[in-house]
Write a structure and sequence with these properties.
The chain is mainly α. It has six helices and no strands. The chain is 83% helix and 0% strand.
Length: 157
């Protein structure tokens, strides 16, 4: 065993945890590792003898409040993205139901209104095609927000 292989086990040996026989054999043979072990034992002893300071009275309450506030801020952003995604989904569903009702003849629309809608749709489609990168980035952001929301809800459980 080399010193580099034994080094991770020196802390464990210093606090009295059992170590592998090969580590003990290396410590018996290697002066440098014995020196590191002695130093680790002195550090552990001084840490055990050091008085533990008392935290301020409101320390725990303050830390918990800050954690709660930070989590609330993160959840607020995620909730906003989720709400936008739900609103877009609801809009698509309503538009689909309207289109289905029109296609089935349940809703009659004047021919001029249809031409206006088709013309407006074609104009929007041309604009959307020219701004495809921006739209893709927006869809990526919404997808990321929904994925983060899902992940954070899984972590909370």
């Amino acid at each position: 065993m080399t010193c580099d292989e034994a080094n991770p086990f020196i802390e464990a040996a210093a606090v009295g945890e059992p170590v592998d026989a090969s580590v003990e054999a290396h410590l018996a043979d290697c002066r440098a590792c014995r020196g590191r072990l002695a130093l680790a034992r002195r550090i552990d002893l001084s840490l055990q003898q050091r008085p533990v300071p008392e935290p301020p009275a409101a320390f725990t309450t303050g830390v918990m409040r800050r954690l709660r506030d930070e989590r609330w801020q993160a959840e607020r952003v995620i909730d906003f993205g989720f709400n936008v995604a739900v609103a877009l989904g609801a809009l698509i569903i309503v538009a689909g139901l309207g289109g289905l009702a029109w296609r089935l003849g349940l809703v009659h629309v004047n021919e001029e209104v249809v031409k206006l809608i088709v013309t407006t749709g074609a104009t929007l489609a041309r604009r959307a095609a020219s701004d495809a990168r921006v739209l893709m980035a927006g869809m990526l952001l919404v997808s990321t927000a929904v994925a983060l929301w899902w992940w954070s809800e899984e972590e909370a459980l």
